[in-house]
Amino acid sequence: MFDLDLRSRDPIYQQLVDKFKELIISNILKQDEQLPSVRVLAQQLTINPNTIQKAYRELESQGYIYSVKGKGSFVDATAQVENRAALKEIEGELMKLMKEAMFLGLDKSDLKKLVDQAKEESGGGIAND
């Protein structure tokens, strides 16, 4: 389920956060689906439970999951809803990257192909786009 790179410059908790986001965004983890418990995931990945807990706290603060005391952590329904602040930030980053790509010779049709490929790989995105 998780490929952690212990040699990566990214902290392990950040790798977990990124992987969970990817699973949620690509709809592999569905709304209200329960995540593995901290203890079970720590045993499976042979890493410190505090690392898992830190990743779960980060995901919760970003709105991807929610916790129910005594029950565990679940994929948040609002993770499927637009997060306007995060989207604005991503739009800014995308704009900067697209300008750089066009400067380096990528044309509009190549960019469109990349957008289509990203949409296909992410499961289609929002229904009304």
TrEMBL record:
The keyword Transcription applies. GO terms for molecular function: DNA binding; DNA-binding transcription factor activity. Keywords: DNA-binding, Transcription, Transcription regulation. Residues 10-78 form the HTH gntR-type domain. The keyword Membrane does not apply. Gene3D superfamilies: Winged helix-like DNA-binding domain superfamily/Winged helix DNA-binding domain. It comes from the Bacteria. This is GntR family transcriptional regulator.
